[in-house]
């Protein structure tokens, strides 16, 4: 279970995260919505360790994440995707995932045996590519892949870390309708197995995937509830759905 | 077998038969030139581990050649003549210096990493220049030479030639193996996208520091061999221009390529030798030549050779 307690952060005069508290329990998918610039990605950055909050606490299964660096948070069970695709461009897709699997399977301070010959790691990486539907692209250089494929590859990287918790920053960003639908379907299969915090704009996706929704505006959580409650909530509608409160 | 491997093995085969052939041709003096190129190649291969595979552009790598040479020279001056003991001393000293300077330098990246490695290189240069009892600025001429198990096989020109060739082969093979290992893979991942590598769960700086130390130790061994070959060490070995030359060799040969550092080293040494016979101001030709090479052969000499042989 992931808990954020009174997380607060400013960049100079810009107050990007205002006293945010939320919790995602085991098996839940928690969606984070809000207008552009509301501080959604900034919040994910603080959970994953890319940025450090000024105050507050972030706990994963009771373990304080804040003293941990990026790689230590991964070992603590956290995994994430980026809004702007972040893979290893000069490696094949298979090797991208294989490196992430390698991180989970013993020391990487091995200097002589060729890593590409490790069957167990390659098999596991192929399994994951198969899950996200990229198996037939395994040998392609990441730099040569389409945007849609890279979104899937990024998800494969996150899954390779066998996370206890998944942070997804707009996984559907820039995808066509069909690709989106496929990805939503796949995320649906993860739902209930891996708890997730999901940033997403597409309300359809949110209704299909999430158990709980929080609305973030100007860095503060202004409403939390089930997707249906949020749809009915006048404050959330005013702030996010662009309607004037009745 | 891969084309690149064949090219590499062909180079080593040529170097293996070169000395007797050059003797027959009455050009035995050229073996000295080959030794010079091989020593440069060993240091360049180690720098390519940093730049090509690790993305860490160091402008102070020659300083480790100097540290290795001085560690050997000072120990030899103190009466230690067994080269295997000198080798152990050289490795220990360069590793220690690299561990400290690398840990500090790796707090930065990019152009700041370049600046800080340059600064450490200069510090080492001036430290060596200030060693008054070891010749100061002028350097130190060695009056004895290292032996191996009391044999002088590593002393005569021919024996040392093959020792250096063997070391170059070991370094060429070893660095390639490292680059393909789990460790090398993490190092290349960190070059591509350090943040992603960290989020995969790797402590990126630790891997980079280990690579930095490995590269420094190899450069130090090149320094020890150059001490044995020249019977002389001087602070000029640590000059930042030498570090710049090493970068030129690596880029010219082809970053992170199988044989690039070796091809680059031989190209640079042979170009200097031939051009300086043609023209006193040979750098007037050498400069534009480098510009053309970098502009039109982006994959470096390694790529050029392999593509040519693919056409044939």
Task: Describe the structure in your own words.
The complex is a heterodimer of chains A (246) and B (312). Chain A has 246 residues and is α/β, with parallel strands linked by helices. Chain A is built from 9 helices and 10 strands. Chain A has helices at residues 40-48, 70-76, 93-102, 119-132, 147-160, 177-190, 203-209, 227-232, 234-239; strands at residues 2-11, 14-24, 29-33, 55-60, 63-64, 78-80, 165-169, 196-199, 212-217, 220-225. In chain A, the strands form 2 sheets. In chain A, strands 6-7-8-3-9-10 form a 6-stranded mixed β-sheet, with helices on both faces. In chain A, strand 9 (212-217) and strand 10 (220-225) form a beta hairpin. In chain B, helix 2 crosses helix 10 (240-253). Chain B is 75% helix and 1% strand. Chain B has 312 residues and is mainly α. Chain B is globular. Chain B contains 13 helices and 2 strands; from the N terminus they run αααααβααααβαααα. Classes of the chains: A alpha/beta (246), B mainly alpha (312). At the A-B interface, helix 2 and helix 3 of A face helix 6, helix 7, helix 8 and helix 9 of B.
Share of β-strand residues of chain A: 15-25%
Structural class of chain A: alpha/beta
Uncertain spans of chain A: none
Number of strands of chain A: 10
Instruction: Enumerate how many helices of chain A there are, as a single number.
Output: 9
Q: Give the end-to-end Cα distance of chain A, rounded to a whole number of Å.
A: 36 Å
Mean pLDDT of chain A: 91
Q: Briefly note the structural class of the backbone of chain B.
A: mainly alpha
Q: Could you say which overall geometry of chain A the principal axes of the C-alpha atoms support?
A: globular
Taken in chain order, the helices and strands of chain A follow as EEEHEEHEHHHEHEHEEHH
* Mean pLDDT over the full residue set of chain B: 93
Which strand order does the major sheet of chain B show?
Answer: 1-2
């Amino acid at each position: 279970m992931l808990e954020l307690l009174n997380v607060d952060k400013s960049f100079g005069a810009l107050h990007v995260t205002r006293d945010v508290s939320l919790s995602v329990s085991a098996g839940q998918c928690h969606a984070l919505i809000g207008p552009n610039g509301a501080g959604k990605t900034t919040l994910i950055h603080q959970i994953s360790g890319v940025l450090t909050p000024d105050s507050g606490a972030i706990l994963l299964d009771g373990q304080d994440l804040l003293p941990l660096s990026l790689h230590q948070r991964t070992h603590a069970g956290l995994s994430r995707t980026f809004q702007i695709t972040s893979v290893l461009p000069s490696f094949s897709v298979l090797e991208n995932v294989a490196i992430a699997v390698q991180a989970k399977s013993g020391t990487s301070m091995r200097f002589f045996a060729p890593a590409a010959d490790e069957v167990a790691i390659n098999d596991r990486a192929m399994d994951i590519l198969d899950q996200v539907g990229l198996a037939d692209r395994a040998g392609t250089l990441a730099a040569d892949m389409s945007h849609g494929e890279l979104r899937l590859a990024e998800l494969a990287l996150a899954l390779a870390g066998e996370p206890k918790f998944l942070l997804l920053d707009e996984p559907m960003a820039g995808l066509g309708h069909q690709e989106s639908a496929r990805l939503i379907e796949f995320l649906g299969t993860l739902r209930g197995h891996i708890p997730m915090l999901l940033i997403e704009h597409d309300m359809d996706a949110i209704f299909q995937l999430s158990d709980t929704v929080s609305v973030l505006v100007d860095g503060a959580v202004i409403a939390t509830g089930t997707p249906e409650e949020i749809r009915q909530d006048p404050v959330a509608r005013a702030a996010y759905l662009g309607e004037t409160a009745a | 077998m891969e084309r690149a491997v064949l090219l590499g093995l062909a180079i080593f085969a040529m170097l293996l038969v070169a000395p007797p052939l050059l003797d027959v041709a009455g050009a035995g003096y050229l073996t000295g030139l080959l030794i010079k190129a091989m020593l440069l190649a060993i240091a360049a291969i180690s720098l390519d581990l940093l730049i090509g595979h690790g993305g860490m552009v160091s402008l102070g790598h020659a300083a480790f050649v100097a540290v290795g040479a001085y560690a050997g020279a000072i120990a030899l001056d103190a009466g230690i003549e067994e080269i295997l003991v000198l080798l152990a001393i050289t490795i220990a000293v360069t590793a220690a210096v690299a561990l400290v300077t690398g840990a500090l330098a790796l707090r930065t990246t990019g152009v700041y990493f370049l600046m800080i490695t340059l600064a450490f290189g200069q510090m080492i240069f001036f430290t060596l220049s200030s060693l008054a009892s070891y010749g100061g600025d002028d350097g130190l001429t060695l009056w004895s030479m290292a032996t191996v198990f009391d044999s002088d096989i590593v002393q005569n020109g021919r024996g040392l030639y093959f020792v250096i060739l063997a070391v170059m082969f070991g370094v060429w093979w070893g660095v390639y193996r490292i680059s393909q290992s789990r460790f090398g893979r993490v190092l290349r991942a960190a070059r591509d996208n350090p943040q992603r590598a960290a989020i995969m769960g790797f402590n990126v700086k630790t891997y980079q520091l280990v690579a930095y130390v490995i590269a420094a130790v190899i450069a130090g061994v090149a320094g020890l061999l150059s001490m044995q070959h020249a019977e002389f060490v001087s602070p000029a070995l640590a000059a930042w221009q030498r570090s710049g030359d090493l970068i030129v060799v690596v880029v010219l040969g082809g970053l992170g390529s199988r044989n690039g550092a070796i091809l680059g080293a031989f190209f640079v040494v042979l170009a200097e030798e031939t051009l300086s016979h043609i023209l006193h101001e040979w750098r007037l030709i050498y400069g534009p030549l480098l510009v053309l090479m970098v502009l039109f052969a982006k994959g470096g000499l390694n790529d050029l050779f392999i593509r040519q042989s693919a056409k044939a």
